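re: that chain from earlier
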Amino acid sequence: MPGIVNSMLPWLMFPVFLDWTDRNYSFAALIALGISLCLSALRLKDGYVVDWTVVTSISLTAVVGLVMSEAGLLAYWPLFMPAALMCMCWASLALGRPFTIQYAKKETPKEFWGSAIFKQVNVQISTVWGICFTLTFILSLLAIPYQPYWPLFVIAKYLLILSAMVFSRVLPEFLVARLEAQVDA
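^ sequence. v structure.
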């Protein structure tokens, strides 16, 4: 699932862009948007929902940066992306179309795409990402009243994303083996 992380990379780098632009949220968001469009151009063309969610959230940050005070943005911009990704993920599951299927199809032979195991594995992986995005959102909320400790919250969020990446790599083989054993039993 490195494509998911590539999609989020400009947002993960947003604090650095803020520093480079002397806390100009709109300009930092435009830098992030430009990088995001370059990194995600093919996935955007192919309709990858994570990429569209990221691009939309970064665009929203650029627009909000023009109308909201710096104090308001400082408190609330960290909520935009986690909230959008959390909603996207849970909506994809609620609609029965786990967002990870788009990535899994790149690594799985076409003859398996219609199998129940393929869908079930992607439901589980999307659920792990949903939990990750939800916890990231909660950490972002908790960071608002504890602004001096924001680096700890950022590190925790990055560790959550890293954990979801590891699960996305390890979980498919484990789940396929377990589900095949259940079918055989």
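Residues 4 and 12 are 12 Å apart (CA to CA).
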